Structure formats: C-alpha cells, structure tokens
TrEMBL record:
Heme binds at residue 434. It is found in: Endoplasmic reticulum membrane. This is Cytochrome P450, family 7, subfamily B, polypeptide 1. GO terms for molecular function: heme binding; iron ion binding; oxidoreductase activity, acting on paired donors, with incorporation or reduction of molecular oxygen; steroid hydroxylase activity. GO terms for biological process: bile acid biosynthetic process; cholesterol homeostasis. The gene is LOC115406118. Substrate binds at residue 279. Belongs to the cytochrome P450 family.
Length: 493
C-alpha cells in the first residue's frame, strides 16, 4: 500500500539481473561439511535468494520446507542463514545462550538504520547499558504509570478527533489506527510540542515518520541510505524532533525518565518511537479489522469490556472518561486478549535471529544436530508455525476464542502429538524478546475498549477482504495491502 517508486525501481532492476529461476542451481551439495543442512543457493552469488525471499518470505520458506524438510540453509545477501522451522526444535535454539547471540545482529543493524553511533563506540561509554536500562522502563512498576498515561491520552485523542458527532462517520481503518495510536503513544512516551501547536506538530511528525517507515525494510536489509533518495534528510528531520530543546516542551513523566536513563542522543529517542509504534499500529489495525468482520467476536469482546467496567462500579456514559487500570487489563483469560493474540497469529511475520559465535554442532534434541559455522545466522520463522494446520485447525480462519477454553487461557497446542512450548511468537523469543510487549498488549486493549464502548461499527459494503502485504516480512506485524473503509457512529448509552 505504501510502496515508493524507488523501491520498485530497485527491485525490478535487480530482478532483471536474476533473469529466471530455471538457471538456479537449487541444491548445492558440493562443499558442504558433514551434518550441514541442505544449501539453497542463488544464481547471483552475493544476492543469493535475498530478492525472492524479500518478495514473499512465507511462500519462499514454505516451498523449500516441502522440498528439503524443516532445516535448510539459504544463501542470502552474502550471508548463510539456516532456517529451523519445526517449532518442536525452537526450545533448543532459544535456550542456547553462549554460542548463539542475538545482540551481535541488532547492535550492528539498529545504529545504521536509525543513525546512531555503534553501541560499543568509545565516544559513548556505557551506551549499551543505558539502552538496556531504558527497556526496563517499559515493564515492572513503570508500566503502571505508562498504562495510566496511555489511557488518558487515548481518551484525549478520541475526544479531540472522534467523539464530537452523532451521525455516521466514515473512515479508512489503517489511517484511523495510525492517527490515534501515533498521537497517543507520542504523548505518552515523549510528551509533545506545546498544546496550541500540538495538532499540526503531530501531523507533520507522523507524515515524516510514515515516509521513513516506508524505507525501513530496505534500511534493515542494509541498503545504504544514500541510495534511498530523500531518506537521509527525513531521518535527520525526525531525529531533530527529539533534540532536547525542540519537541519536548511539555514533557511527560515517563519521558523524563527515559531521557535521564537513555543517552541524550536524539537518535535513540527516535528509534524508541519507531519501536513503540512501528508494530503497534498494524497490530491495532488487524485486531480492529477482524472484530469488525466477525460480529459475534465484536459482541463478545464488547460485552466483556462492559462487564469489567461495571464490576469496577463505573457507570459508562458518553460524558465520562473511560479508565481501565493495569490490573483490569492484565487478565489473560479474556476474549479481548484471545482476540488480540489471534490477530497477532494471523498477521505477525517476525524473524528470530541468532548469530553463531564459533563453529559448532547445534544439538536439536537427542538424535539431531546440525553443523554451524562461525558467523552463520540461525533463524526461526514463527509464521510457518502460526499457519500450520496441524497446530491450528483451519489456520487461515480468524477465531476470536482460539486462546481461551472454559474461561481459562488455552495453552495446549500440539505438533506430532507433542505439546508445544512455543506456539505464538509475535514478540520474538528468549534474550531478544520485545521489552514493550506488556505495554503493547495493554494499549491495544485500551484502544479496542474505547472503540467498542463509544461506537457502533461497520465495514463498508462491497470491499474485498484485507490481505497481508508481504513486503515487510521478517520485521514484525505485516501491513494490509490496501486500506479498508468503515463506518462508525456514537453509541447511544
Ligand atoms: C504489537 C506490538 C509490538 C510487536 C508485535 C513487537 C514486536 C517486537 C519484535 C518481534 C522485536 C524483536 C525481537 C527479536 O528480534 O527477537 C521487538 C523489539 C523491540 N520492541 Fe517491540 N513490539 C511491539 C510493540 C512495542 C512497543 C509498544 C514498544 C515500546 C514502547 C516496543 C519496544 C521494543 C524495543 C525497544 C525493541 C528492541 C529490543 C532489543 O533490541 O533487544 N515494542 N519488538
Ligand atoms: C534531556 O537530556 C538532555 C541532556 O542531558 C537535557 O539537556 C534535557 O534538559 C533533558 N530533557 C528533559 C525534558 O529532561
Ligand atoms: C452524550 O449524549 C447525550 C444524549 O445523546 C447528548 O445530548 C450529549 O451531547 C452527549 N455528550 C457528548 C459529550 O457527546
Ligand atoms: C497472548 O500472548 C501473550 C504473548 O504473546 C501471552 O503472554 C498471553 O498469555 C497470551 N494470552 C492468551 C489469552 O493467549
């Protein structure tokens, strides 16, 4: 949906050089050491399979899984990536600390993407520790503050933009989620430009953010920023929003903490902004979309929210602000959490990466092992598991109650008759798990609560189903390939 001409040009151009799949030597057995998985090589040695993978990673991996089994190595953009696709083997990788490192990869890629110095840079001693500490502010005690603040800001944005009319209004769903979540998150995490100018200021920042975000997959793929016309300037502009004397006039409490903990480098604030909305916005979109296209789910979730509120003795009306506290949001045994997890399952396409620190034999259970060379990447790709019909019956179908059973959270999912330790992984795994995951879950619940309490909602007629745009595969929640129109009207309460 948000493709730029640059990217098309780049991709089409490169594809021309690849010419045709027929010329590819698909399974090179030569030069493989004992116990090394089958190797899938590209025609052009350096680019390897990178472009085909970039086009539709799920399709690519699924195809090779059928041909080579659950473990194979792909030569991609000059790297060897060994995919392990059987979720029963995930625990062996996730708990394998010493020889498989995550941070080597992120420490290299994140600074290049967001424009900050390498985390081990001598110029900024202690940077790495500061970043780690800033992640802690998204959890534990601080999460209570963050969650309360988000509630207030979501309410504020709903009032300011959406609660004024009693007629049916019509909107584009992705744009709706983007504008609400972006502004509320910005206010919560960073505070913002002074109120009078807030609206225009937020919109300008958001538009620049979207432009940068369009190029994000390329930057992560380490395409040099100088090849992406205009991107460096936009990134500079974005980073400058976070210069201490600019945007942060009216500073939220959470931000002061982040500012004090994290290095004052504005680029870090910008990276944090990306992390905090880059996945949340599409995740919010899919949850909303699936609810609107499944009225029985919408009804169940709305009823549940109303019960939570009435239990707390709040009489809901259109004049009072809704407040849902952390304890009310924390319960996993609910239809709303199951709904959100089900929409994660259907839309998440993150890749979990580890880098081999030495040549060694990776033990995968009692009878299996694969030889790994230093510098190789080991990758898990949970989307394959999320859409596995053996684990999830009718995997392409949205079932809002997939993760609840008899009023309790459902945690037993099986493959080959064995219970899976990992069956849903939208937030990564082990040492690299998303530090914002609790906050993300809370804010999406808060958003859905306000939406369902205040509005009657309908999809507009005559639209085709929303499809996933695969171009961001590997990076988190996929975007829809086209926006969806919907109607909403204040509920009479
Ligand atoms: C639905 C929403 C979200 C999803 C699906 C998501 C997913 C992810 C994933 C997959 C990773 C990489 C983990 C890995 O490589 O194993 C990650 C990292 C990260 N996320 Fe999230 N995230 C979400 C929301 C948030 C929010 C709201 C924040 C902050 C407020 C946040 C902050 C971060 C940070 C700082 C990292 C980097 C961690 C590191 O480098 O160790 N995320 N997220
Ligand atoms: C953030 O940190 C910078 C550098 O230490 C400081 O100049 C600035 O006043 C701080 N901003 C806030 C709002 O605390
Ligand atoms: C709440 O609803 C009542 C009755 O429909 C209406 O008169 C009032 O203006 C509404 N208040 C707000 C803030 O929309
Ligand atoms: C939803 O998923 C999260 C992690 O992804 C998990 O912690 C939580 O228990 C799940 N809740 C339900 C109801 O499945």
């Amino acid at each position: 949906m948000r493709r730029s001409t640059n990217w098309w040009f780049f991709r089409e151009h490169m594809q021309l050089s690849l010419i045709s799949g027929a010329l590819q030597c698909d399974c090179a057995v030569c030069c493989r050491r004992k116990d090394e998985p089958p190797l899938i090589k590209g025609w052009i040695p350096f680019l390897g399979k990178g472009l085909e993978f970039g086009k539709d990673a799920y399709k690519f991996l699924d195809k090779h899984k059928r041909k080579h089994g659950d473990i194979f190595t792909v030569q991609m953009a000059g790297k060897y990536m060994t995919f392990v696709l059987d979720p029963l083997l995930y625990p062996y990788i996730i708990k394998h600390g010493r020889q498989l490192d995550f941070h080597e990869f992120s420490n290299k890629v994140a600074p290049i993407t967001f424009g900050y110095p390498p985390v081990h840079s001598k110029l900024h001693p202690g940077l790495k520790e500061q970043i780690q500490r800033s992640f802690k502010l998204l959890q534990g005690e601080s999460l209570t503050l963050l969650t309360e603040s988000m509630m207030g800001n979501l309410m504020l944005v709903f009032r300011q933009d959406h609660l004024g009319h009693s007629d049916w209004m019509s909107g584009s769903m992705y744009q709706f989620c983007l504008s609400v979540m972006f502004e509320a998150t910005l206010l919560t995490m960073f505070g913002c430009v002074s109120s009078a100018r807030r609206h225009g200021g937020v919109r300008a920042l958001r538009d620049d953010f979207v432009k940068f975000d369009d190029k994000f997959p390329l930057l992560i793929a380490q395409v040099p920023i100088c090849l992406l016309r205009g991107t460096r300037a936009i990134r500079k502009k974005l980073i400058n929003y976070f210069l201490p004397d600019r945007i942060l006039k009216e500073v939220s409490e959470s931000f002061t903490q982040i500012n004090n903990t994290l290095s004052p480098l504005s680029a870090h604030h910008f990276a944090m902004l990306w992390a905090s909305v880059g996945n949340t916005v599409p995740a919010t979109f899919w949850a909303m979309y699936y609810l609107l296209s499944h009225p029985e789910a919408l009804q169940a979730v709305r009823q549940e929210i109303q019960e939570v509120l009435s239990l707390s003795g709040v009489e809901f009306s259109n004049d009072t602000d809704v407040k849902l506290h952390r304890e009310q949001l924390d319960k996993p045994t609910t239809s709303s959490e199951s709904t959100i997890n089900e929409s994660f399952r259907l839309s998440s396409a993150s890749m979990n990466i580890r880098v081999a620190q030495e040549d060694f034999s990776l033990q995968l259970g009692e009878s299996r092992s694969v030889a790994v060379r230093k510098g190789d990447i080991i990758a898990m790709y949970p989307q394959i598991m999320h859409l596995d019909p053996e684990i999830y019956e009718e995997p392409k179908k949205f079932r809002f109650d997939r993760y609840v059973h008899n009023g309790a959270e459902k945690t037993d999912f099986y493959k080959d008759d064995q219970k899976l330790k990992y069956y849903l992984m939208p937030f990564g795994s082990g040492s690299s798990m998303c530090p914002g995951r609790y906050f993300a879950m809370n804010e999406i619940k808060q958003f859905l609560s306000l939406l369902l309490l205040y509005f009657d909602l309908q999809l507009e007629d005559g639209q085709s189903r929303a499809e996933l745009d695969p171009s961001r595969a590997g990076l988190g929640i996929l975007l829809p390939s086209a926006d969806v129109r919907f109607r909403y009207r204040l509920r009479v309460v």
